[in-house]
Design goal:
With 371 residues, the protein is an alpha/beta fold. The protein is 41% helix and 12% strand. The protein is built from 14 helices and twelve strands. It has a four-stranded parallel beta sheet with strand order 1-2-4-3, with helices on both faces. The radius of gyration is 21 Å and the shape is globular. This is Peptidase M19.
């Protein structure tokens, strides 16, 4: 398994700037005022090398209700388009396949397939900006080609219709993240025997579990059971802001021990109305879970309000500048923006390859295990 630091390259400390005094020592420039000392300029430079892997966008559901759009030229009807993603230094983006509340349960499978079909069509229509990614390697390939990697998921667990066969079909179509909440086998009481079999099959396939919105019992059991690190795609610190999707300190500590990843959402409801509020949550999660267990989730185009200066996907440099002002080392920021998501994706690929050598596709049914 590749080492985490494969994706975190040391930053160049001395910029090639013209010297007023031709005999001056270039190292003296590090302490001199100017662009190199400006947090926003440093943020842009850092993000050039370590772009943002954004853990959640609600764009697919919004796009299906627009009569026309062009994401490469720019689209005012949404928070996310290619120009703003490039301005925000976003290199990879998880496209949510979540369904709106109130949709009939018997429509979940069909509606999720329609979402998948839409996303693939959008990517095909915007080849200069977007590229579908199924693995950590594909994400790197997309970046090297100057494209923004699109990862499919999270999808709602209801889309499985209690069938491991449907899980495998969705994985074949590109699904890489599944939210474990809102089903009889992943409920307030935790995972049932069938729910545990779902997690094992996800590990075998390389589908990562999303635990945002799941019960504490479900989160605790998945952390103990899953051999692949989990994601919380939209969770901040509950001790700072008591939102039901935010995590208490005990679970943040447990998430860190399991090397999972808490993707802090940029929403006013969950993190607060200012950039400083978001930075407070990032500080808190990093302190409890560790610097290799915290990431970012724009949660744009999801019908929620965003903090000041973070109204759309172009705002990430302002958030990184705030972290630099707080003294975050560049190595921790490189993990926050890019390295931690790459680690989770690489580990999921590695675990899946190993599991498929030892385990055949599961034929278990919910009637057999929970009936």
């Amino acid at each position: 398994m590749a080492d985490l630091q494969d994706e975190v390259h040391p930053m160049t400390e001395v910029a090639a700037l013209p010297l007023e005094d031709p005999f001056a020592d270039p190292l003296d420039l590090l302490d001199a005022p100017g662009p190199s000392g400006d947090p926003l300029a440093r943020a842009h430079a850092l993000l050039d090398d370590h772009p943002v892997a954004d853990g959640y966008t609600g764009l697919p559901w919004v796009l299906r209700h627009l009569p026309w759009y062009d994401l490469e030229e720019g689209e005012s009807a949404v928070d996310t388009d290619v120009p703003r993603l490039r301005e925000g230094h976003v290199g990879a983006l998880f496209w949510s396949l979540h369904l709106p509340e109130g949709l009939a349960a018997d429509r979940a499978v069909g509606a999720t397939l329609e979402q998948l079909d839409l996303v693939r069509s959008v990517i095909k229509a915007h080849p200069e900006g977007l590229r579908l990614a199924r693995s950590a390697g594909h994400v790197i390939d997309a970046r090297n080609c100057g494209r923004i990697a699109v990862l499919l998921g999270p999808a709602t667990a209801a889309a499985l219709d209690d069938s491991l066969g449907i899980l495998r079909a969705l994985h074949t179509l590109g699904l890489r993240v599944l939210t474990l909440a809102g089903t009889s086998w992943a409920s307030g009481a935790g995972l049932t025997r069938f729910g545990e079999e779902v997690v094992r099959e996800m590990n075998r396939l390389g589908v990562v579990a999303d635990l945002s919105g799941a019960s504490e019992a479900t989160i605790t059991r998945v952390l103990a059971l899953s051999r692949t690190p989990v994601l919380c795609t939209r969770s901040a610190a509950r001790s700072l802001r008591p939102h039901p999707d935010n995590l208490p300190d005990s679970l943040l500590t447990g998430l860190g021990a399991a090397k999972g990843l808490c993707l802090v959402p940029l929403t006013a409801e969950q993190t607060g109305p200012t950039v400083r509020d978001v930075a407070d949550h990032l500080d808190h999660v990093r302190a409890l879970a560790g610097p290799d267990c915290v990431g970012l989730s724009g949660t744009y185009d999801a019908g929620v309000a965003h903090p000041q200066e973070l109204a759309d996907a172009s705002g990430y440099p302002r958030l990184i500048a705030e972290l630099l002002r707080r003294g975050w080392p560049e190595s921790d920021i490189a993990l926050l923006t890019w390295g931690n998501v790459q680690r989770v994706l690489r580990t999921a690929d590695f675990v899946a390859r190993s599991a498929r050598e030892r385990r055949e596709p599961s034929t278990a049914t919910i009637a057999e295990l929970d009936g």
